[in-house]
Specification:
It is built from four helices and no strands. By secondary structure, it is an all-alpha fold.
Length: about 90
């Protein structure tokens, strides 16, 4: 789906972007790998991802939504949803 701004979310580009922000290998950022339990992401790193996503995709995410983003599939869903309503 594309947004009204014409942005289309490329899941693999997003995965690479998240992996880069987290300083992880892209292969370790699987759809269901838990950021905190499996990938060692702390709250500060999670906030860094949130800010980076906002800047990259020109969207607004709040800290309450951050709590619901426990794996890459959640991030992809939230960003995709924000792009479609933008």
């Amino acid at each position: 789906m594309s947004s009204s701004t014409g942005q289309v979310l490329d899941p693999e580009e997003l995965r690479g972007f998240v992996a880069d922000v987290l300083d992880l290998d892209v292969e370790s950022v699987t759809d269901d790998a838990n950021f905190m339990a499996e990938l060692g992401v702390d709250s500060l790193k999670a906030l860094e991802v949130l800010v980076a996503l906002e800047r990259r995709y020109q969207i607004k995410l709040n800290e309450d939504e951050l709590k619901d983003m426990t794996c890459f599939a959640d991030v992809r869903e939230f960003v995709s949803e924000k792009l479609t309503v933008a």
